Please model this.
Amino acid sequence: MKLGFSAADEAFRAECADWLQGQMAGEFADIKGITKLTAKPERRREWEQQLAEHGWACIGWPKAWGGRDATLAQQVIFAEEYARADVPGRVNHIGVELAGPTILAFGSDEQKQRFLPGIAAGKTIWCQGFSEPNAGSDLASVRTRARLDGEEWVVNGQKIWTSLAHISDWIFVVTRSEEGSAGPKGLTFLMMNLHQPGIEVRPIRQINGDAEFNETFFTDARCPADSLIGAVGDGWRIAMGLLAFERGVSTLGQQMGFRNELDGIIAAAKANGAAQDPLIRQRIAQAEIGLRLMRYGALRMLSQTDHSAIGGAALTYKIQWASWRRSLGELAMDVLGQAGEVSAHADYEWDMLPNLFLYSRADTIYGGTNQIQRNLIAERGLGMPREPRGQA
Amino acid sequence: MTMLMDPAPSADALALATSVREYLAETHGPEVLRRLDAASGRDPAIWQGLVAMGLPGLMVPEDAGGMGLGLEEAALIAAECGRVCLAEPLVDTAFIAVPWLLAHGDTALLADIAAGNRTIPLPHAINPWVDGGEGLHSVDPLRRLGTAPSDPPTDPHLLNLGALMTAAQLVGLAEAMQDQAVAYAKLREQFGQPIGAFQAIKHQLASCTVAIEFAKPVVWQAAAALAAGRSSAAIHVSHAKVAASDAAWAMAETAIQVHGAMGYTYEVDLHFWMKRTWALCGAWGSRAFHLARLDDAIIGGAHPIGPEHTFA
Ligand SMILES: Cc1cc2nc3c(=O)[nH]c(=O)nc-3n(C[C@H](O)[C@H](O)[C@H](O)COP(=O)(O)OP(=O)(O)OC[C@H]3O[C@@H](n4cnc5c(N)ncnc54)[C@H](O)[C@@H]3O)c2cc1C
Model:
């Protein structure tokens, strides 16, 4: 087994790096290094379009749909160079990484025609309407109702924690379309235009002062009858397919961002003397080992030609990186010491390391909590008996 | 074998702490924290309430208008201040500055402090800023920090007092977060049952309880040792600061996890406690500083080890 990237991959890396760094030194220098997800939304939209114009918006998609048919390795490389060039997070990552692949995998040709070009052009921004106030880990208990009314679906209910809904154009929604159904049966996966009177978005403030996620209310919201992916009642299968994209290999490219964060911590430790402390030194060494562990794990995945075989091992990514990064946030604060408590900015704005600490509190929660990941590894990966369910 | 010290607080001290706890529970709930945060300020009525209970004068001698109580009582009250995430400078002024002034025979300000007319921001070389000042932005939206003077004191007794009272507050903070997480785990249902029915949730909370319960006596013991002026006091204080920080830190992380996405919001009050925990874990000596004091003493021989000391 060979771990590593091919010469062609490395040439591709140089191409990515060249273009991305050029952009961050040129036309888009004003957004370089932004960590706050809600900062400069208009410029971030323009950036999505810039990526699209130069063929970088959705490189993993088929060429026929505006992508590059990039291999998994190339997608990882692009994500790495993206982070290395200090480009801010993508406001349409949900469109590119979740909505697009789901439509590609499960949508009809007509739906592909309708939805993919907007994402590929960096023009339609998507968000994810899964969680509800009473359906978080237990996603199958969603209650948002969808009823077919002639040529339209009419949707009523509430989603919550909808990241970036306030700047999005479209939302995919897991709805309960069969009255009286419970659990994973009777669900339908709908795609809805957010710009309509029946949908209201209210921001929720987060511990770091930002308001990247929202409550999304549906009051007789409407979408055409053919807005569903898969069949009526088949929503659970589609949602699970999408979650596999969210938790799986699409996260491999994050590691360069993690590298930047760890480098930031090491630099801070050297600058303030914390690097003299034996305990801090050991924790830095452990963080480095953890990062390399993920790195080699990723390379191992990439070297496998049959990506369908990745399934079982992919169950282990989410908890691994999430736990590692949550500890990294704590290490950052221990390195900064009391200085980490203070911000140079008014208005509750935070520099990279304190923000890393705050943001990483959520890593072990979104996309499936650590507890849910462990259940999945044990039950699906190891075939152990299911957790008993309550009768309520 | 004689018991050198008794880490359990006296009945009188506990009764006093209970009355303070009840008063604060009634007057200083989470809605007060939200109100203070929104108004970005202090409410003089809160301070006046503490004054009316005589708390600024808790350690001020009776002839200067105080109650003349000691560090053990003060540590218990400091824990109550942590429990409600109190932002008023009571602990700094009354439980750190006052005993320090007393130790130096400096009595000029005591009557004023006891009357509630004076609070004292306390610089120390161990802290990069002054708690109780103005002008810096802390992650804890209710904390008021100011720039440190150029030549802050380095007095080790002041550091020990600060670290002890910080440890005591951390115990209260940890217990408050535990209460919030446990209450939420009983209330929140997923998969048809309270999430607290899942062993994965129960075990996390139980582990935190173990850490908190074992931190408490260490803190009371440090208070007793410092009050008695024992030569080992600094070691006990460092032990207390590390144990209380570790317990509170684990509790903060777990409490957020138990709350799921709710725990990541500014709208659920938990974040106030989490951020105070973060701030206090670093205040009056980091974990690394206190561990270094411990390992220096243990390996260097200043802190006698062996059964006749450990179990004395
Ligand atoms: C920053 C952020 C962004 C998000 N973005 C989106 C988004 O764009 N779209 C969207 O739909 N959702 C989003 N979410 C929501 C996320 O998917 C949920 O928070 C997550 O699924 C957990 O649900 P919950 O918050 O309701 O917690 P709960 O499910 O209530 O869980 C509370 C606690 O109980 C534990 N628990 C629950 N069930 C079990 C069990 N069976 N066994 C053991 N422990 C259990 C959990 O692990 C957790 O510790 C986001 C969340 C965050 C924090």
